[in-house]
Amino acid sequence: MLKMNHLSKVYRTHLIETHALRDFSIHVREGEFVAVTGPSGSGKTTFLNIAGLLEEFSGGEFWIDGVDVRGMNDDQRSRLRNEKIGFIFQGFNLIPDLNLFDNVDVPLRYRGFNAAERKRRIEETLSRVGLASRMKHYPAELSGGQQQRVAIARALAGSPRLLLADEPTGNLDSLMARGVMELLEEINRQGTTIIMVTHDPELAARAQRNVHVIDGQVTDFESEPQLRVPAQGSGAAVTA
Amino acid sequence: MFYYYLQLGLHSLKRNPLLTALMVFGIALGIGTSMTSLTVFYLMGSDPIPWKSDKLHAVQLDNWSADQPYRAPNEPPDQLTYLDANALMQAGKADLQAAMFKTVWPLQPENPDVKPFSSLGRATYKDFFAMFEPPFKYGQAWDAAQDKEHARVTVLSSGLNEKLFGGTDSTGKKVRLNEIDYTIVGVLDKWQPRVKYYDLTIGAFNDAEEYYVPFTTAIELQAQASGNNSCFESAKPGWEGYLASDCVWIQFWVQLDSPAREEEYMSFLNNYVNEQKKLGRFARPLNNRLPDVNEWIEAQGVVSRDAQIQVGLSFAFLIVCLVNTIGLLLAKFMRKSSEIGLRRALGATRGQLFMQHLVEAGVIGVSGGLIGLVLTVLGLTAVRSLYKDLNNVAHLDWFMVLTAIALSVAAAVLAGLFPTWKACQITPATQLKTQ
User: Which residues form a coiled coil (chain B) (predicted)?
Assistant: First the structure.
């Protein structure tokens, strides 16, 4: 699903060069739930941004769902991101003056779905996260946990193959965090590949595989785990 | 997607009402100011009779002094002498022709309740009506025979007919002008050329006349013209001396239905002047002119240099308003940088975001344009109350309404280009963490 080989990311100013990622290699297979851990400044978020095509990388190779990302222009990356990747952010990143329906609608608009298809997907994903009855509510009227559920619905609405979560429970209390984590696990069981950056060892332990990043390099790679059998959908067991 | 962008634009405007109001009002003020001056400028210089302005020609003959031109560098007089006007009328070489001059006569109403008043009129020939096409409400123009017979007939304006006869059909009735009774043969409908191009000697934007009488009648009655009268040497004493003088005081218009007819007529004029030279008149080199309506308006400086400068200044003010809008839009779009980053992360291309923000700028432009139109109407009202002579040109027409909206949208989109471009350069990754 996602493969990086000897990837590097260098931030340059006129005074210094900072190597955010160096010789970074990772292979995430379809259907996996991978937790990326590491201390602050280790390069976790840089990895996630590059994985989500939000930042360019300086060197190495990178494929998403078999598509070579190198040499893609900005529009091509935007389209690939829209079709294949869903994002969940620590700060939820909902648009405050749009109601839940319109927030979930945002990626679908850029995808070019017609109104009926968008409505179907929005209602389906908001139902899936348990917020179907609050479609006309605004983010400020919801709790943090509910807002994160809306963000998850927005990420899922376009049926992405890969979900990237950056500290998805970082702004939530433990009860809400547990709820969000259970939702992510359920989504993964249904076949969506998830890469989650987290500081929380307890959450990381719930992932199938942990990737530890220090100084921009993968230091501890739990390889070849036995993958879960998807609960429904694709049917076939995915093995590493 | 356009409808979606429109919805987002409206949402965004509602989000910061004060900032939005500042931008909209800034554009509205610029549009209101520039459109007010542009409307006056446009109507001053616009073609008052577009369907035939190329066929109507003012006649200019250079009968002026050998010592100096009528106007530098070598302009012929803008009016004719009675001698020449009469000769050209007698020759009748044009398709239509009319000599004319302005009169101000006392009018004595039959109705004792209406006090006598002085009224603006025009002594002319029957072709005046066929050439300049004022619409008739009742009756018609007098005929050639009545021109010839110096008939006591008149055509009234709708305003005067309303005043004297309550707007009813007054043809056949009499009206007493300068102590002589005239039979009304026609009543015009409302008619007010934006520019009174057929007589620019006293105010290009004055009201049209209230009555029209035959030129020949006015001459017989020795009616003095109330317009400009220019002489380069003293006339001999008496009315006949004045008529025989080289003083210019008569406007002369012809209708020539084709360029060939125009050439023929110019040739006729040149022959006429050459003949007159033999009689000791026309000391200057041949310098006859036949400007059409638009050439005439331009040559007579109807649109003054002041008006042009005023338009320039008002557009400079619009630019100041736009620069202000650029600053405000920049601030607005930069405040939205986290949303822009988010939309990029959710799959929006730079092009889509560029369009979205341009549409938002366009929404500001349309709003500014609509309020600007209201300000334009107020501005034109102020112009009309301050400058009575601009009463006929300080009006907004549909063309100018559309121009105002288009100008406003173009201005706002132009102002939005840089802020929009700047907003689209936002790197999504840097914004998503900071929200």
Answer: none
Residues contacting residue B38 through CB under 8 Å, at least 6 positions apart: B311, B314, B400, B403
ipTM: 0.84
The answer to whether the CB atoms of A97 and B428 lie below 8 A apart is: no
Residue pLDDT, tens place only, B243-282: 999 999 999 999 999 999 999 999 999 999 999 999 999 9
The amino acid at residue B63 is: N
**Which class is A2-93+160-221 in CATH?**
alpha beta
Residues of B in contact with A45 (CB under 8 A): 433
DSSP string across A48-100: HHHHTTSS--SEEEEEETTEE-TT--HHHHHHHHHHHEEEE-TT----TTS-H
Instruction: Indicate yes or no: pTM above 0.90.
Output: no
List strands edge to edge, sheet with A33-37. A85-88, A162-166, A193-197, A33-37, A209-214, A217-221
Measured at the CA of A139, the angle between CA B428 and CA B17, to 5 degrees, comes to 80
Q: Which residues contact B54 (CB under 8 A, 6 or more apart)?
A: B292, B293, B294
What is the residue-wise DSSP string for B275-315?
A: HHHHTT---SPP--B--BHHHHHHHTT-S-HHHHHHHHHHH
Q: How far apart are CA A230 and CA B133, in angstroms?
A: 87
Pick from A52, A45, A54, A75: nearest CA to A2: A52
pLDDT bracket for residue A230 (50, 70, 90)? very low
Q: How far is A154 from chain B (nearest CA, A)?
A: 9
- Cβ–Cβ gap A75/B349 under 8 Å: yes
The one-letter amino acid at B184: I
- The domain segmentation of chain B, as residue ranges, is 2-47+304-432, 56-291
Q: Would you list the domain boundaries of chain A?
A: 2-93+160-221
Nearest-Cα residue of chain A relative to residue B352: A110
> How far is C-alpha B344 from the geometric centre of its chain's CA atoms?
53
